[in-house]
């Protein structure tokens, strides 16, 4: 099998380029490519969201994403996985995360893709803030809601 | 004679950074302190921390309460993650 090229950046501040991620894992040995895109949704528990804002502990997030991908490639035979997570502002409808899993057959491609997105949500040190018209709150930390709240600027 | 202490930088994120109004804290901890002891010291200074289920990372990996801190360790407070 073709040796894996260096991974594209794990974290990006701009739009995710799905074609580049796909090209990074597709080879003639892979007969199945399964893609998951997590996209910014307008409603959250009945409230209208204007924008999602993401931040990460970048050095740890990169390590964790690399470990999650390595785990999936080991567990699902022949699988090769590319991942990119967006940081900063993510407008509604745009992708905040992409997982592209290539495998010789579809069963492993679906399974690897699912495994990786589930592990990212559970383990990667990345945080999502929902920006509403009148304030903002970090998901999973509802007490962080502040009218008009804006976090201190990231470095 | 004063006990040996280490000065640590603690990185803060998301709702923790918001409440702290800062991206990092600096604290002095006694040599050989554990993560649990550091958590207690931080909660004494910032009582709102007791309400938050934060995890600690030491050198960019999740740390158990019993992990002992060494000089130069990179520490971080991680609120519940919500990527994806």
Order of helices and strands of chain A: EHEEEEHEEEHEEE
Average pLDDT for all residues of chain A? 92
Determine the fraction of residues in helical runs of chain A and give it as a percent range: 25-40%
For the sheet with most strands of chain A, the description reads: 5 strands, antiparallel
Strand order of the largest sheet of chain B: 2-1-5-3-4
Question: Which residues of chain B sit in consecutive blocks of at least 5 with pLDDT less than 50?
Answer: none
Q: What's the overall geometry of chain A?
A: elongated
The string of secondary-structure elements of chain B, in order, is EHEHEEE
| Chain pair forming the biggest interface | A-B, 35 and 23 residues
Number of helices of chain A: 3
- Quantity of strands of chain B, as a count: 5
Structural class of chain A: alpha+beta
Number of strands of chain A: 11
CATH architecture call of chain A: Alpha-Beta Complex
Description of the molecule:
- Chain A is of the alpha+beta class and 155 residues long.
- Chain A contains three helices and eleven strands, in the order βαββββαβββαβββ.
- Chain A has a single domain (11-134), classed as Molybdopterin biosynthesis MoaE subunit (Aldehyde Oxidoreductase, domain 3).
- In chain A, the strands form three sheets. In chain A, strands 7-5-9-10-11 form a five-stranded antiparallel sheet. In chain A, strands 1-6-8-2 form a four-stranded mixed sheet, with helices on both faces.
- In chain A, β10 and β11 form a beta hairpin.
- Chain A starts with 10 loop residues before the first strand and ends in an 8-residue tail after the last strand.
- In chain B, a hairpin with a 2-residue loop joins β3 and β4 (61-62).
- Chain B is globular and about 40 Å long.
- The mean pLDDT of chain B is 94.
- Classes of the chains: A alpha+beta (155), B alpha+beta (84).
- Chain A binds chain B through residues 38, 54-57, 59-61, 63, 85, 96-97, 117, 120-129, 138-141, 143-144, 146, 149, 151-152, 154-155, and chain B through 11, 13-15, 17-19, 21-23, 51-52, 57, 60-61, 76, 78-84.
